[in-house]
Design brief:
Layout (H helix, E strand, L loop, with lengths): L1 H26 L27 H11 L4 H16 L2 E3 L2 E3 L5 E3 L2 E2 L2 E2 H6 L6 H20 L3 E7 L2 H4 L16 H11 L4 E3 L1 H7 L15 H16 L9 E8 L2 H5 L9 E7 L7 E3 L8 E6 L6 E6 L16 E6 L7 H5 L3 E7 L3 H5 L1 H5 L17
Helix pairs in contact: 8-9
Length: 383
């Protein structure tokens, strides 16, 4: 009897190992196997002697990325944690109250959770180093008669921290951006925190997408008008335009959780009545891949260059109305040749709070030597 129990246990153990992979081969064409992680999944390791030491680690990454029924179990785990604890954290996504999703990524060059908890403040030495780099860039631009501005977009949780799980504590009064930007401004540097305009309206309006990493069109409009105020000394108040609600939507983080069908009741918005006399046309296609170029009948004959991460994308609905030519480039598609290609007059450099590697390395980004850009995998904040 004891021997039979042992054999049964061994048989069940073997089946538990081979059953999922074998059954997955049979059903994979009929279940959800889509990659929701906004990155390229690990490939099978290269089997060669010169790669021998890396094979175990690469195989583990491959196995984790391609585990059978991965999406099903991620979905199940999220549902259970949300039901039992009211919040959950799956990969880089934290589920807060009222199902608000937050991109609390922690990878090289990004640590959004530390941003939220205020535990990664810059040292005095780091502040001085950053200030020196921005000063050098601003002076170099001025020598070419180019105006240069740096804008920092806050992470969603910096504006809507009230929806973050109560178990995640905040230490101290200021984030690293809230602390460093006033110090940079005291030195006369053109650096601005876009949280200033967003916090003013955050209680009365929803400014970020509930299930996505980005701000919505209302938040983007407020950011664009803070930019306009800094660059031109005037702006259009939110009260002077019309906020038009649209269809229900999901978002990139809901997809990461494989729960886009459940988290899909957010509302999209558009802004109507903003400078209606200014007409904007987009080049189709733009002359250079990855670059968006807009032309308008604005009175301002100058050319704008926006260099930024994915948070700059929504600004294409507003900033092109302020220039006759506006050029938008992501960090990934940026090349220093843009300055000569488009005879640039003003530069707006924009990144979201968690992407501080771009804030800390502005000179290297602008001269094209920042190694973190070439071939870099895109995250949700950089798509």
């Amino acid at each position: 009897m004891q021997v039979m129990k042992q054999k049964l246990f061994i048989t069940l153990f073997i089946l538990s190992l081979i059953g999922p992979p074998v059954s997955f081969v049979l059903v994979k064409d009929f279940i959800d196997t889509q990659n929701y992680e906004n990155r390229t999944l690990a490939s099978f390791p290269r089997l060669a002697w010169d790669n021998f030491e890396q094979i175990p680690g690469e195989f583990e990454e491959f196995l984790n990325d391609h585990a059978p029924y991965k999406n099903f179990f991620v979905n199940l785990n999220t549902r259970l944690e949300t039901k039992l604890f009211g919040a959950a954290s799956v990969a880089p996504v934290t589920i807060g109250t009222d199902n608000w999703l937050f991109y609390t990524v922690d990878v090289q060059g990004e640590d959004a959770l530390s941003d939220y908890q205020h535990v990664n403040l810059y040292t005095i030495e780091q502040q001085e180093e950053i200030a020196g780099k921005i000063q050098a860039v601003a002076e170099g631009m001025e020598e070419q008669s180019i105006r240069f501005f740096v804008f920092e977009a806050p992470n969603k949780e910096s504006i809507y921290g009230k929806y973050m799980p109560k178990s995640i504590h905040v230490y101290g009064q200021k984030s690293r951006l809230d602390a460093i930007i006033p110090e940079l401004q005291k030195k006369g540097l053109p650096v601005y925190n876009l949280a200033d305009s967003l916090r003013e309206y955050a209680e009365d309006y929803q400014l970020y997408c509930k299930y996505d990493t980005h701000w919505n069109m209302v938040g983007a409009f407020l950011a664009s008008q803070q930019i306009a105020e800094a660059v031109f000394g005037n702006h259009v108040p939110l009260e002077e335009v019309t906020i038009q609600p649209g269809a229900e939507i999901s978002g990139d983080m809901a997809s990461m959780l494989n729960m886009a069908s459940e988290f899909n009741d957010d509302i999209s918005y558009s802004i109507e009545g903003y400078l209606p006399e200014v007409l904007v046309e987009k080049e189709e296609p733009a002359e250079h891949e990855g670059i968006s170029v807009f032309h308008s009948n604005a009175e301002n004959e100058h050319t704008l260059l926006v260099i930024g991460d994915s948070f700059s994308e929504a600004l294409t609905s507003y900033l092109p109305k302020l220039y006759q030519t506006a050029v938008f480039s992501t960090f990934k598609s940026y090349t220093p040749e843009l300055f000569s290609w488009y005879d640039v007059d003003d530069v707006i450099y924009l990144n979201v709070e968690r992407n501080q590697r771009y804030f800390e390395r502005i000179p290297e980004v602008l001269n094209g030597t920042f190694a973190g850009i070439a071939g870099e995998e895109e995250t949700a904040g950089e798509e």
